């Protein structure tokens, strides 16, 4: 790797959801000349969300993809250098830190903000992808409101699934919970709450055979693992709550993560275990996972990076 070929960047932002773009807006205004690489899914998970009604400042609601265009345009207007490209490898063993883009080009950066997000785990059914945004969703808190008073189904058996089923039970007339085994993985307290909720019905030992509907979700066909028997449940929405996978694999050799792969940050900051490397958004937040909290943590990361680079320049000066 010849030094002459390596582009040097003051502040590099990896990822382009609410966290990455907000970090870019703040970093640009602070004069850090940020370069942002958009990654595999420019705009992040919001680009597969239809209507967003819970982000402040949009009284009429807004389409997820349109909202991300607003974020991108604002970052551009502030002076962010926004580029297509995917970070494929990193070397944080010494400063300046090195990041490889698209398996070919290496960059050097004084500070790095990681905002690579998380990807929802899906079942892998054709109907699930076809009806995504038309009743199929991986976020009950984001989309449950659109099915007020309707019958819905949710698949999953962990704390997230239990929490989302309880959330839906307050909005929807009936919640059918599809659980693969004869027990749930959720904590005892969450299970008890689910069992005590009259409009949550649990289908044990059940798998999703197919989501039915032409232009929108109309029913779900489930299969009992023990008997092989199939049945159709009429529903208007199908929520997948089988977990998320944080997009942190390329950083694992250097950054501390929890057992699920979420990057660990110092409480109340965006700082990782490596000085000058910051993490924001869903790649480090497995609890809230909302656009507004991701944006907030992107702001924190940019402010932390600004202080870090300022202190470094002061020490060098």
Describe the overall structure:
By secondary structure, the chain is an alpha/beta fold. The protein has 2 domains: 190 residues, FAD/NAD(P)-binding domain (3-Layer(bba) Sandwich), CATH 3.50.50; 119 residues, 3-Layer(bba) Sandwich (FAD/NAD(P)-binding domain). It has 7 helices and 19 strands. Strands 1, 2, 5, 6, 7, 8 and 19 form a 7-stranded mixed beta sheet that branches. It has a 5-stranded parallel beta sheet with strand order 10-17-11-12-13, covered by helices on one side. A 3-stranded antiparallel beta sheet has the order 14-15-16, with no helix packed on it. A hairpin with a 5-residue loop joins strand 6 and strand 7. Helix 1 packs parallel to helix 7 and helix 5 packs parallel to helix 6. The protein is elongated and about 70 Å long. The two termini are 29 Å apart. The mean pLDDT is 94.
